[in-house]
Amino acid sequence: MSLLAIGTVAFDAIETPLGKTDKIIGGAATYITLAASYFTKTANLVAVVGDDFPEEYIQLLNDHGVDTEGLQVKAGEKSFFWAGRYDQDLNSRETLVTDLNVLATFDPIIPERYQDCQYLMLGNLTPQVQKTVIERLRTRPKLIAMDTMNFWMDVALPELREVMTMVDVLSINDEEARQLSGEYSLRKAARKILAMGPKTLCIKKGEHGALLFQGDEVFFAPALPLEEVFDPTGAGDTFAGGFIGYLASTGDVSFDNMKRALIYGSAMASFCVEKFGTERLLNLTQEEIKARVQEFVKLAHFSV
Ligand code: AMP
Q1: Is the pLDDT at 1 greater than 80, yes or no?
Q2: Integer Cα distance of 199 and 193 in angstroms
């Protein structure tokens, strides 16, 4: 089933206690489409970059089955740039720079070939653009999932709340869930957020796993305790790409299947953090993914 992802395609500069990168390929949509590419034949991408974005980075996406017809390259403009620094424990991060650049005036154009997409992943970017993409699709996809972050809650909350009424699944982290709801208890936060529009809510808790809420149901996926964590950047987006990629590959959007998708998303995120940036997502095999999912099954399985 066809998948369409939007979000940032960016330059990132990352600092963790284990090292530092110059400007490397990053962006929410980059991680989403790379992760989803392991589940669907093509991941269609709608995004924008400036003409400073290297051709080889676009080729890298193409090499992973990402269709970049919907990636606009703006002459004379600069790509979105984000810089972040992680604390010693790699759990909290400080944003050092967010340069919207080309994103500030982004008008998303949907190629005709993408019109019949059944699964839409609205990756992290301007809520107004997320809304425009939904409006520009002639037929509503079978499933619309959306990711966002505190940055947009701070600068565009009314627009963000409006998009939330148009989507099926919202994916945010625990801090963002608390900010959005004003509740400390994630159970209470989930109830309030579900009342804002989405039928399903996924709350990511970094190295402490992820929670899935729908109606009165709640499901928990652990995160795999890893030997080595180098860089958590993109873990949330990789999770989202694996989650929606799995749903698209199975064509089943029931809550039971979403539980499986949560495990697949968590497995993909566990790979992402093992190396800097997108590196670990570039050469995965289906066998590695299968084995990783089995580790999750073993980790959480018990009988009473
Ligand atoms: P994650 O670690 O999953 O939260 O995602 C990190 C990615 O999000 C990086 O590759 C950044 O380029 C991108 N990013 C950072 N800030 C923003 C923002 N305000 N809007 C959209 N994408 C962002």
Answers
A1: no
A2: 9
